[in-house]
């Protein structure tokens, strides 16, 4: 009988010990003390906010390639040449119209005046071809073009990587036609380098070009 009582006491004590251990384990789970560490929900939230978040880099717009040309002068406003009048192109050269004809006239002091390219017709000229093609006439450093274009606002001449804004005149005596000219001077341009001409409207849109130059002098 005594032995049985002792055994019952041991069993009871064991059950109590297990119960106490369960309470301690539960307390440890809640407090984080005396048992395995359990993350606090608030700590997790703070840590999540502090962690860096991967983001995509902002989209970038493609930047147009800048012009390779270096301008040697500034742009001037388009003028109007009255019928039968003339205007100086520089280097003793003048431009004049007569009816629907035009000419570049050389007037060097002490020499008789003459027309290096003769008088050229713009109307009824079977040899003209496409009147909208600027073409280029050059006399020394002065380059000029006469062509049909009622939308032209800016004309640019180039040689090598140099560029010049042309002076542009609308020809009142030849409706729809314009004349442009520029004096191309540059010591660092290789001899024999040919000139080109680019024609633009008021919005900077390239309308036509003439010559071998590539690219766009007014590209941004």
Topology:
Blueprint: H1 2-31, H2 41-50, E1 70-71, E2 79-81, E3 86-90, E4 93-98, E5 101-106, E6 120-121, E7 137-139, E8 142-148, E9 154-159, E10 162-165, E11 167-171, E12 177-183, E13 195-200, E14 206-210
Parallel strand pairs: 1-10, 2-11
Antiparallel strand pairs: 3-4, 4-5, 5-6, 7-8, 8-12, 9-10, 9-13, 11-12, 13-14
Short account of what is shown:
With 220 residues, the protein is of the alpha+beta class. The protein is 18% helix and 30% strand. It has two helices and 14 strands, in the order H-H-E-E-E-E-E-E-E-E-E-E-E-E-E-E.
Main β sheet profile? 5 strands, mixed
Global shape: globular
Q: How much helix is in the residues?
A: 10-25%
| End-to-end distance | 110 Å
β-strand amount: 25-35%
Give the overall average pLDDT. 77
The number of helices is: 2
Q: Flag low-confidence runs.
A: 1-48
SS-based class = alpha+beta
Radius of gyration: 44 Å
Element-by-element helix/strand order: HHEEEEEEEEEEEEEE
**Strand arrangement, largest sheet?**
1-10-9-13-14
Strand segment tally? 14
Give the key terms.
30% strand, alpha+beta, 220 residues, single chain
Overview of the structural elements:
This protein is an alpha+beta fold and about 220 residues long. It is built from two helices and 14 strands; from the N terminus they run H-H-E-E-E-E-E-E-E-E-E-E-E-E-E-E. It has helices at about 1-30, 40-50; strands at about 70, 80, 85-90, 95-100, 100-105, 120, 135-140, 140-150, 155-160, 160-165, 165-170, 175-185, 195-200, 205-210. The strands form three sheets. A five-stranded mixed β-sheet has the order 1-10-9-13-14, with no helix packed on it. It has a five-stranded mixed β-sheet with strand order 2-11-12-8-7, with no helix packed on it. It is globular and about 75 Å long.
